[in-house]
Design a protein that fits this description.
five-stranded antiparallel β-sheet, two-stranded antiparallel ribbon, alpha+beta, 3 helices, Thiol Ester Dehydrase, Chain A
Length: about 130
């Protein structure tokens, strides 16, 4: 499946006392990238995050930190669908310098659940089709 690159600049308040982006903020930045990436795939923010029938909570997250990212530094984030399961989607999110040097690699897994009862459901076909063709 293909990917898309998004461009951001690390903010002052993203950093820790050493002047590098705090490790936990990578997950916030990855979520921000996902919020921009989904509409580019034809999945509106409301359809994914505010759907009255289902939710897509985070089930698992992991990260590898490779090089420091500093406030004021512009970087790119690549979002890619790594795998589509019956009820889950797995994303790979890579942070890179503008010259392509890898800064961090994150993996997140999200599961589709019913709003009522929070029970696992299959990925709705309309969303599956858009995630498969990106």
């Amino acid at each position: 499946m293909s990917s898309a690159k998004l461009r951001f600049t690390a903010a002052f308040d993203d950093s820790d006392s050493e002047g590098i982006v705090f490790f936990g903020n990578y997950f916030r930045l990855a979520h921000r990238a996902l919020e921009q990436w989904l509409p580019a795939q034809g999945i509106s923010w409301e359809e994914w995050f505010k759907n009255p029938a289902f939710g897509v909570p985070l089930r698992h997250a992991e990260a590898d930190y490779l090089k420091p990212l500093k406030p004021g530094q512009t970087f790119e984030v690549t979002v890619r669908v790594a795998e589509l399961g019956e009820s889950s989607v797995h994303f790979e999110i890579e942070f890179q310098t503008l010259d392509g040097t890898a800064l961090a690699r994150l993996k997140t897994s999200h599961v589709f659940v019913s709003r009522e009862g929070m029970k696992k459901i299959g990925i709705p076909e309309a969303i599956r089709a858009r995630l498969q063709h990106v």
